[in-house]
Specification:
With 689 residues, the protein is α+β, with helices and mostly antiparallel strands. The chain is 19% helix and 33% strand. It has 2 domains: 29-161 and 179-391, Prolyl oligopeptidase, N-terminal domain (Methylamine Dehydrogenase, Chain H); 397-672, Rossmann fold, CATH 3.40.50.1820.
């Protein structure tokens, strides 16, 4: 066993300010801290390179504010100056774009009395926002042409006039997967006050539409329908004019990610799959507009490309490899080698924006802070924002990369976070946090969130283990396909082998190990609590899979499941799907299991959780509890649901890994008591005033 590359971001980037009123005595994060952590969500540098507009999350405070998802506020930072709050408060700002002259910022939001989200603009030098265009449905995205006199947006058509009356009369039958509307593209003139949006004649459902930088042609991604399965697996790339006529159509196959015009409008770069069965879009392609050829520019043999932009004839892209990432500049028309602008081991870059001058800005995180805005300079990464100044005063647990060998000899990588008060020679309880997908991966950056309260459990004396088991991304196409038609074993024995390695090293108490994860990570948790139950003392499954057969019949991605995971249909390999289902192994279940799920989940239907709950409860060999979150889907978006989830997860682990175990802890978290205490405190403060 060996430990590899140790990275702690503060040593490279330092702290940017601190809040002296925050507790310098803070030793580790709490769940309450995690509930208030904010981060930069998106960033766009102005074409002239003088400004960066970015959105930042603003969390709602549980018990105090009305429930809902985090707000998204707009800030503008002059290069070399202090950031200015432009639009803050109870707002949700999205799809920030600049006018070509860098004078105005455009964005999507619901403002004032809006019923639906529309496009707004605001002058960068001050002034009020003005609504640019809106229709009787939410605008999903938009693009501005090079001369600034046209805008194209995508949206569904508004509901017919009689719809509300029919609902009132009770006619609300929904014909499943047929009663759906395509997303359309609409053109809109910005120089005519009387202009009306004009729907473009494009076949299929539009996913994105982007103006060329040199003319009014559109780069369009479409799918046959707006069903998520079609968007995943049948996305097509083409160029059209504003009459809807096809100028160029490119032959692509499988999953497809971001697509962007070259600066001269002659080429298109896009992130795509190697073939239809590739689990993820991770290779970088260039498509030529004249002859419609497509060539692979960056292969994903041992890494995955995550984002891409152009500057003149150069491609700038983010590449994730193993647990690290880098930013690369690659010439397209010149015969020079690609050059890293930021090499591996300098934070985890997530997305980028490039000015006309070539200045590059990225969103990145490290082991010590969530996603923030950075400039890439000749001296390296320069941090520009600090969304959580109080976090600088909190002592965080040590984090490092960890590599071990699976039972078949395959090298597996993961992230290991130590107990905050770790002492060499002692063994500690551990929680394994398993990512979903499985076409995803965890990097050696910031991994703490509501469903993975990693730094909070480290502060309570746990090891947190975050493995990138086979089937994960970040290690190339071959590694990502290792789970195809190989569900559960050896995928999830990879996780177990990490536990066994840490136990063998004497760091972890083998009798006090828990496991948790969401979606495919929930599947891993369910498998570990049934088939591998003897190895785990507690489990928390979130939006997870328990029955591969019924999952196939209730999910909204059956074709994606077949193409990049199962590589078989249920009717062709029924027994294999049955035997790779946790319910098939429920007689082994001795692990106390907490199951949580959003009741509106379409990706993994809540019936998956109900099935496993009923099996385990009826069998009666292990404690089990099922918690459903009303209105939540494939993961909790609202503040109360997120905080409630964190509380239940940690209490379950504490009870079975540190406490007496036995019967489950009380199901009631006594939220009403907390609310009463807060209300009483507020009244006392009002009386004092």
């Amino acid at each position: 066993m060996k430990k590899i590359l140790f990275f702690m971001g503060v040593s490279l980037f330092g702290a940017i300010g601190s809040d002296s009123s925050q507790a310098a005595e803070n030793k580790g994060l709490t769940l309450e801290d995690i509930a208030k952590i904010e981060s930069v969500r998106s960033a766009q540098v102005s074409p002239n390179g003088k400004w960066v507009a970015y959105t930042k999350s603003h969390k709602r405070e549980p018990y105090v504010e009305d429930d809902g998802a985090a707000w998204s506020e707009l800030y503008v930072k002059p290069i070399g100056g202090e950031a200015k709050p432009f639009i803050t408060g109870k707002v949700n700002i999205g799809s920030v774009r600049w006018s070509s002259d860098s004078a105005r910022i455009y964005y999507i939001a619901m403002r004032n009395d809006d019923t639906f989200a529309g496009v707004y603009s605001i002058p960068v030098d001050g002034g009020e926002s003005q609504k640019v265009v809106g229709i009787d449905n939410n605008i999903l995205s938009y693009s501005l042409n090079s001369t600034g006199n046209k805008l194209v947006f995508i949206a569904k058509e508004g509901a017919p006039d009689h719809k509300e009356q029919l609902v009132q009369k009770g006619f609300q039958a929904n014909v499943y997967e047929e009663d759906i509307q395509n997303v359309h593209a609409w053109s809109y003139s910005l120089n005519n006050d009387d202009a009306e949006p004009v729907k473009l004649d494009i076949e299929g459902s539009v996913i994105s539409a982007k103006f060329s930088p040199v003319n009014d042609q559109l780069l369009v991604q479409v799918s046959p329908t707006p069903l998520i399965d079609d968007i995943y697996m049948k996305k097509k790339l083409q160029v059209i004019d504003l009459e809807g006529d096809v100028v160029a159509k490119f032959k692509t196959e499988g999953k497809q990610g971001k697509a962007v015009w070259s600066t001269d409008g002659e080429n298109i770069a896009f992130i795509g799959a190697n073939d239809y069965n590739d689990p993820t879009a991770g290779a970088l392609y260039i498509a030529n507009l004249d002859d419609e050829t497509v060539s692979k520019r960056v292969t994903n043999d041992s890494s995955h490309v995550m984002d891409v932009e152009w500057h003149n004839d150069d491609l700038i892209y983010i590449e994730h490899k193993g647990l690290e990432s880098r930013v690369v500049k690659a010439a397209v028309k010149r015969r020079i080698a690609a050059m890293p602008l930021v090499d591996y081991g300098n934070g985890i870059q997530r997305s980028l924006s490039v000015a006309n001058s070539g200045a590059v800005y990225v969103l990145a995180d490290t082991a010590n802070h969530p996603r923030e805005l950075f400039a890439i300079t000749g001296a390296g990464m320069q941090r520009l924002t600090n969304s959580n100044t109080w976090l600088d005063e909190v002592e965080l647990a040590k984090q490092e990369a960890y590599e071990y060998e699976a039972r078949d000899g395959l090298k597996i990588q993961g992230v290991l976070v130590y107990p905050l008060d770790y002492e060499d020679g002692e063994s500690y309880p551990m929680i394994a946090f398993i990512h979903g997908g499985p076409e995803a991966h965890r990097s050696n950056g910031w991994n703490t969130r509501y469903a993975d309260p990693i730094q909070a459990v480290a502060a309570k004396g746990y090891f947190a283990f975050i493995p990138n088991y086979r089937g994960s991304t970040g290690r190339g196409d071959e590694f990502a396909r290792l789970d195809q038609h190989a569900y559960a074993d050896p995928e999830f024995t990879d996780i177990l082998d990490g536990k066994l390695a840490l136990v063998e090293e004497g760091m972890v108490d083998g009798d006090k190990v828990g496991i948790t994860g969401g979606s495919y990570g929930g599947y891993a948790t369910a498998w570990s609590a049934t088939k591998l139950s003897e190895h785990y003392a507690a489990a928390v499954m979130f939006v997870g899979i328990s029955n591969q057969l019924s999952k196939f019949g209730t999910t909204d991605i059956p074709n994606e499941m077949h193409a990049v995971h199962a590589r078989a249909w249920p009717w062709d390999d029924f027994q294999w799907m049955l035997e790779t289902s946790p319910i098939y192994h429920v007689k082994n279940a001795k692990t106390p299991l907490l199951i949580m799920h959003g009741d509106s989940d379409t990706r993994v239907h809540p019936s998956q959780s109900m099935e496993l709950y009923r099996y385990v409860k009826t069998l009666g060999q292990a404690p089990v509890r099922l918690v459903l979150y009303p209105g939540e889907g494939h993961g909790n978006r609202k503040a109360a649901g997120q905080y409630d989830y964190s509380l239940r997860l940690v209490r379950w682990m504490d009870h079975y890994l540190k406490g007496d175990g036995g019967e489950p802890p009380a199901y009631d978290l006594q939220h009403e008591k907390t609310l009463e205490e807060i209300n009483a405190e507020d009244k006392s403060e009002e009386k004092d005033d």
